[in-house]
Write a structure and sequence with these properties.
Radius of gyration: 17 Å
Distance between the termini: 41 Å
Largest sheet: 5 strands, antiparallel
Shape: elongated
Structural class: mainly beta
Oligomer: single chain
Number of domains: 1
Length: about 110
């Protein structure tokens, strides 16, 4: 097992704010759906653990569909799905990408 440092760059296009607002749904703190282009990069051995990495680096470029919701309680969750094109110093590959996160929003509620 190992914990790796992964760098992520993300370009996002939120696409259903107007419709959500018309239906009386929340759009505060970016509650809505999005399309994104993401890139992930990890280099080298794990920061913690003894899992050995075969290649010197891994890079994945992936178009994503995602949805993020923030509730009045300030509980936040995000789901994103996509299929990525990956490559490293030894091979290229296609990889499914799925991410889910739960968080808490601090500070004022932004509309």
């Amino acid at each position: 097992m190992g914990f790796f440092l992964i760098l992520k760059a993300h370009i996002v296009n939120d696409y259903n704010f107007k419709r959500r607002k018309q239906k009386g749904k929340r759009i505060a703190n970016n509650s809505g759906n999005y399309l994104a282009l993401s890139s992930y990069l990890n280099i080298g051995d794990p920061l913690i653990g003894d899992l050995e990495s075969r290649p010197d680096y891994n890079r994945v470029v992936v178009p994503l569909w995602g949805m993020q919701r923030t509730y009045e309680s300030k509980l936040n969750w995000n789901l994103e799905l996509g299929v990525g094109y990956g490559f490293n110093d030894k091979e290229t590959y296609i990889s499914p990408i799925a991410g889910f996160s739960i968080g808490w929003i601090f500070g004022k509620d932004g509309n």
